[in-house]
Design a protein that fits this description.
Shape: globular
Distance between the termini: 50 Å
Radius of gyration: 21 Å
Number of helices: 16
Helix content: over 70%
Order of helices and strands: HHHHHHHHHHHHHHHH
């Protein structure tokens, strides 16, 4: 006698499908993001394209600038074409852009490839987060988003192994050809990933959304009374500065700027800076693996710590510990001790930035929560552009030893800004439990 699957089994199956596909997409996102930092020591040592440290810093910033463009336009594009189509398009864009890098015969062409890759990378992550939020089991969105974010760091780990396995026997171009492989994943994503329920409801395709929600026993998003107009969006932004809120808003923005400067500065320059400290290239790439392993652990534990002690407090403490860890990396120690410090730095660094978003989400009023988080992330991405450039300038000036110190100071600044924000009386707003982990980077 056959029996139909229980509702919990159906929702579990759909959530597994959506999260699994999005996890793979974000894995490829992380691979493409970290691959430049992993091959950079080789590019500098062989003077490929006549590359210098300051030019290398510029190239690192091109990708993060592209990410800024991608992240800022992702919401608008997704509203028009759907989140599923946008995700597929982003995978295609950054895969093809890696092919441009692999075939590049000049710094200009390579830089174009990295910029285009950044656009795809920047658009994919927030879209994937929205997708898994739609299909996460009831009350489990925060945990599912945290799980999704581990894929970004898994991609960083993969990038280090790709560089270690391919650069010496085949050459640096092979590493970027590997980043073209996700192009084969795009048709899989297009075939099996369901469209966002929120998008279907917003477009008036309520019957299609209702049937899908009923089939898998997921909660159908409420039908909103109307779309936000430009005036509504402007009013939500202005609301972040009314009364004394402007101080809190600026503190969040400054903390996010320093946090993403630190995240992307370290992600781009960690292997190269470790080389300047006297470590062999193989060990420098191993540090990338250990750093991202720490990032995975950090993403899994940060939410629990924030629930118990408060997101603002955890963010400030995490940034303080990150600053200490990054500074200690400027001191040449035994490889084993350095590995431990790199791991712990990875634990605290990546989740410290996530806790800024969690703080903003929890302390914001529901009417402009999305605006507050979005603009905090957007302002922080200017730090993401500045971080790789700063590392290149320091190395070009012969001040590589100051690289870790500069990034540590960025961590201290974020600790101060989020700490001061935490001391201020928060606006009374309902807590968004499922938004405790709202997208990072």
């Amino acid at each position: 006698m056959s029996s139909s699957p229980s509702p919990s089994a159906r929702v579990g199956r759909l959530a597994l499908l959506v999260v699994g596909l999005c996890w793979l997409a974000v894995l490829f996102d992380g691979l493409d993001m970290f691959i430049y930092g992993s091959v950079l020591p080789h590019l500098l040592e062989t003077k490929t394209f006549g590359l210098t440290a300051d030019t290398a810093g510029d190239l690192g910033s091109y990708a993060t600038f592209g990410m800024l463009v991608g992240a800022l336009t992702a919401g608008t594009v997704a509203d028009r074409v759907g989140r599923k189509k946008l995700m597929v398009s982003c995978v295609v864009v950054f895969s093809l852009a890696s092919g441009v890098c692999a075939m590049a015969d000049s710094v200009a062409v390579f830089g174009l490839g990295r910029t285009l890759a950044g656009v795809g990378l920047g658009g994919l992550l927030p879209t994937a987060i929205s997708m898994v939020s739609d299909y996460a089991p009831r009350g489990r969105a925060a945990i599912v988003i945290g799980l999704l974010m581990t894929a970004h760091h898994a991609g960083g780990i993969l990038s280090a192994y790709v560089a270690k396995w391919l650069i010496d026997p085949v050459g640096w171009r092979a590493a970027f050809w590997v980043c073209v492989v996700p192009l084969l994943f795009a048709p899989v994503l297009a075939k099996f990933l369901p469209e966002s329920l929120s998008f279907l409801v917003a477009k008036g395709r309520t019957e299609e959304a209702g049937a899908l929600a009923a089939r898998y026993d997921v909660e159908l998003p409420a039908v909103k009374s109307g779309r936000k107009t430009a005036v509504d969006r402007w009013d939500a932004l202005v609301g972040l500065f009314r009364g004394g809120e402007w101080v809190q808003t600026l503190l969040y923005w400054l903390a996010s700027f320093g946090g993403l400067l630190l995240v992307y500065g370290v992600a781009t320059w960690l292997p190269t800076l470790m080389r300047t400290e006297g470590y062999a290239l193989a060990n420098a790439l191993t540090f990338v693996v250990v750093f991202n392993l720490g990032g995975i652990v950090g993403m899994l534990v940060a939410g629990r710590a924030a629930d118990r002690f408060g997101a603002p407090r955890i963010s400030a403490i995490w940034f303080a510990l990150t600053a200490a860890g990054v500074y200690l990396l400027s001191v040449h120690m035994s490889t084993g001790v350095t590995m431990i410090i790199v791991f712990l730095t990875g634990v605290f660094l990546n989740s410290a930035q996530t806790m800024i978003y969690a703080t903003v989400s929890i302390r914001s009023h529901p009417d402009n929560r999305a605006t507050a988080v979005g603009w905090t992330s957007g302002m922080g991405r200017f730090g993401a552009v500045f971080g790789p450039w700063l590392g290149g300038q320091l190395l070009a000036a012969g001040n590589g030893d100051w690289g870790f110190t500069a990034f540590a100071l960025a961590g201290v600044s974020s600790m101060v800004f989020i700490g001061v924000a935490a001391l201020r009386s928060p606006r009374q707003a309902p807590r968004a439990a499922d938004q405790a982990l709202v997208g990072a980077h």
